[in-house]
Amino acid sequence: MWLSSGALEGDLVVLEPLSLLHCEELRDAVSDGTSWQLWYASVPAPQDMQDYVEKAIKGLARGEMAFVVKTKHDGKVVGTTRFYDVKEQHRRASIGYTWYSDSVRRTGVNTECKYLLISYLFETKGALSLEFKTHFFNQASRTAIERLGAKLDGILRSHQVMPDGSLRDTVIYSILSHEWPAVKNNLRAKLDKY
Fold this sequence. Notes:
- The chain is an alpha+beta fold.
- The chain has five helices and eight strands.
- Strands 1-2-3-4-5-6-8-7 form an eight-stranded mixed sheet, sandwiched between helices.
- A hairpin with a 3-residue loop joins strand 1 and strand 2.
- It is globular.
């Protein structure tokens, strides 16, 4: 496996490999808010958490890595994120399936999570690029990705069929390895505020 399944630790958060033992804590986390009700987001409803976690764990066989996000000051699970669509041969991966409790929105949690994941990909694994993908109508996600310093690559129209039968236009962003030093400085400056 190109990506290992160890924990990643920062000043604000710990990204711990996802396991079935996290289901109850993740149910509590997703219940802090209503993001699971957004038609354009892939956030599981509380009652669907077991299935969501089981599917994420199955991704290990494809070289994917899923994490729970814990706040460091109290060890509370506040969300999840993962590496997926991992292409070892091409030294690239996507970061996504990210969602958080409402209580940690507009804090340093997402910024530090992305800093840890991107640092790991570029500095530890020697990745050439990474991608972020989101629904065209998920403006909050698009804004957050752009704030990281990722650049818009394009839009894949009618890319996926959503659970409700609507078609998803997928917006693709990327960060290339040579862009990482500037993106890193940007993220560090944002984290310094926290």
